[in-house]
């Protein structure tokens, strides 16, 4: 299992446009093979910071995801709405023994 954490810095005047575009993208992404969760979060201290947290079965599931029409459409919207390049991290659960 992998997680993708994408942090966006959004222009204040474009926040509603980004959320509208994200809503459509989230709806379609949740239908994709290999997707476990796909959610958009907002900072409680910085209204310009939005964070996608995605959960996928494996890294291979990301390959077709990146090529979908809904991702391409959202990408065109997001690039207009962002004040800085996104920060994208791919992470995996740490192997910890909590016994």
Please estimate the helix content.
25-40%
Strand count, sense and barrel status of the largest sheet are: 4 strands, antiparallel
Q: What do we call the CATH topology?
A: Alpha-Beta Plaits
**Can you name the CATH architecture?**
2-Layer Sandwich
CATH class identity: Alpha Beta
H/I helix tally: 3
Determine the strand fraction and express it as a percent band.
Answer: 25-35%
Kindly state the number of beta strands: 4
The string of secondary-structure elements, in order, is EHEEHHE
Note the overall shape.
globular
Strand order of the largest sheet: 2-3-1-4
| Gyration radius, in Å | 14 Å
Helix/strand-derived class?
alpha+beta
Summed up, the domain count is: 1
Q: CA-to-CA gap between the ends?
A: 21 Å
If you average the pLDDT, what whole number results? Answer: 96
What are the segments in which pLDDT stays under 50 over at least 5 consecutive residues?
none
Structure keywords:
about 100 residues, Alpha-Beta Plaits, alpha+beta, 3 helices
Folded structure, characterized:
With 99 residues, the chain is α+β, with helices and mostly antiparallel strands. The chain has one domain: Alpha-Beta Plaits (2-Layer Sandwich), CATH 3.30.70. 33% of the residues lie in helices and 29% in strands. A four-stranded antiparallel beta sheet has the order 2-3-1-4, with helices on one face. Helix 1 runs antiparallel to helix 3. It is globular. It starts with a strand and ends in an 8-residue tail after the last strand.
